[in-house]
Amino acid sequence: MAEMQNDVGLIGLAVMGANLARNLADHGFRVAVYNRTSAVTREFKSTTGRSERLIPCYELSALVASLTRPRRILLMIKAGPAVDAVLRELTGLLEPGDVVVDGGNSFFRDTERRQQELAAIGVMLVGAGISGGAEGALHGPAIMPGGDVRAWPLLRELLQTIAATAPDGAPCCEWVGPGGSGHYVKMVHNGIEYAEMELLAEGYGLLRRAGVDNADCARIFAGYNRGRLAGYLPEITAAVLIYRDPETGAALIDRIRDNAGSKGTGRWTVDSALELGVPVPTLAEALFVRYASGQVELREALAQPDPGAAESSGASAEALASMLEPALYVGKVCAYAQGFALLKAAAAAYSWDLNCAAIAGIWRGGCILRSVLLEPIRLAFQRQPGLENLLAAEFAAAELAPALPPFRTLLGRAFALGTPVPALASALGYWEVLHSAQLPTNLVQAQRDYFGAHTFERIDRPRGEFFHAAWSAADDGRSDVSSRS
Ligand code: NBP
After folding, report:
1. 96: left (phi over 0), alpha (psi -120 to 50) or beta
2. pTM, rounded to two decimals
3. pLDDT, tens digit, 9 for 90 and up, residues 162-197
4. What is the pLDDT at residue 427?
5. Mutate-to-test residue for ligand 1 from 44, 77, 100, 236, highest number of ligand atoms within 8 A of CB
6. Among 155, 213, 215, 441, whose CB has the most other CB atoms within 10 angstroms?
């Protein structure tokens, strides 16, 4: 093999890596590929075309030696210790100025630690969230790269060429920011993805509980996919619901156990929200329902006919569908509002200066979240970069107000039927809380002061003055409300 003639090295030939390698080769790049298990490399080589631009390597050193300088290497391997193992091996082979892109779902703090380790030898590690699954990797994913910005000119053409394009032709790949911000943005993307999937699932559950069959559910979701809810997830929801089990001929969805798995990014999103003190109730509910879905034995033991539940929804399938559409829309906007609020908090906490309009722009194509809603979100942040919460955006205020009455009615029907809709309910709760100038949390603060002397502010005194009341005889003997500095 001639030395130093390949444009990029790709390590890890499972589903994502193999398809990204094909995507790169389809766009004219010479790609040196390597996989820890060499049989996988051989299999990849024998089953894929584009042979002259896909160059198999059976040693990491051979892959590294074959690349043009500065080298560009894309890792597509299992997140976690495997990434450290490969980086350790690469360390002895790379030179200052080389760039390694970790395209897996690595935890952003691991990425930052690895960036520091590699910076010691002058190698730049870019953490790039890549979304779109196997199909996206082959035909154009959304890519969210972050790290040392000096790496961007070396990667820009490569990554933007293989990325998806948004409806306006812009590449769904832009530099996100420093440190682990690329992986963080992908993590929040996945957190929102959990929420949208759960909202759709709750809508399906409610329709089925109300007696709507799978085919009609599919028609309803396909209808949503022609309007403001249009996007990849509603689209695949309709496709899943009409898919027939080749074995039985029945709808496959009815044969699938309700135990939904998760791999980590949804939990990390909620962990980060807890750490930064950002409310993300819909993202959290979506995660918690997945956990509860795994409590199969407990749910089976507790499942009882509920004599108090209504027998019928009292509405036709069409009437339910027309209430569910605004409910899903509010839920989806609230999920994005929570996700972007988290991004803004992380940007402030970690000095990342994230551009929310650009992030919404990246998500418009290629990724699992792609949907028509991303364009108004992008425009809202473009017009008002300082927008604190998406619910304050003009389009959200205008479109959500008329959607709330049918949403409330729908939730009432769901509660009466006894069908679980925790993510939908959390979204309405989120909207209500953020639109309440006065919350009943004055009582919470009073309770805190009662049992823990945590003090409180008064609405008839300036902010920053704190008071404690002698609530009970066990207090310090004073019967009046006293000021505490
Ligand atoms: P997997 O996450 O299943 O990882 C398999 C790859 O990691 C194989 O190439 C395997 O090599 C390699 N690997 C492992 Br496991 N341990 C290794 C080690 N110690 N040293 C070297 N290589 C090792 O692959 P994937 O589903 O293609 O995903 C790749 C990355 O992209 C992951 O981080 C994933 O979270 C992320 N991602 C996946 C999707 C998706 O839809 N699957 C979407 C978006 C992002 P081997 O053949 O020798 O075992």
Report:
1. beta
2. 0.96
3. 999 999 999 999 999 999 999 999 999 999 999 999
4. 98
5. 77
6. 155
Cis peptide bond upstream of 70, omega within 30: yes
Would you say the C-alpha torsion 351, 107, 119, 11 has a positive or negative sign?
Answer: negative
Angle between helix 181-209 and helix 214-224 axes, rounded to 10 deg: 130
What are 79-98's pLDDT values in tens digits? 999 999 999 999 999 999 99
Look at residues 139, 269, 128 and name the one whose alpha carbon lies nearest to residue 192: 269
- Known catalytic residue: 297? no
Q: Residues 112, 174, 193, 196: which is the catalytic one?
A: 193
Q: Which residue out of 112, 186, 202, 344 is catalytically annotated?
A: 186
Regarding the beta carbon of 76 and ligand 1, being less than 6 Å apart is answered yes
Please write the tens of the pLDDT for every residue from 289-326: 999 999 999 999 999 988 888 888 888 999 999 999 99
- CA 105–ligand 1 middle distance (angstroms): 9
Q: Which range (11-20, 43-52, 216-225, 280-289) has the least confidence?
A: 43-52
Q: How far is the CA of 418 from the centre of ligand 1 (A)?
A: 41
Q: How far apart are CA 273 and CA 270, in angstroms?
A: 5
- Which residue reads 């809709």 in tokens? 421
State which of 10, 15, 16 you would mutate to test the pocket of ligand 1, scoring each by most atoms of that ligand within 8 A of its C-beta.
16
Residue 22 above 60 pLDDT? yes
| Burial category of 37 from C-beta neighbours within 10 Å (exposed 0-12, middle 13-18, buried 19 and up) | exposed
Instruction: Check if the beta carbon of residue 267 is closer than 8 Å to that of residue 287.
Output: yes
**Mutual angle of helices 394-417 and 422-434, in 10-degree steps:** 140
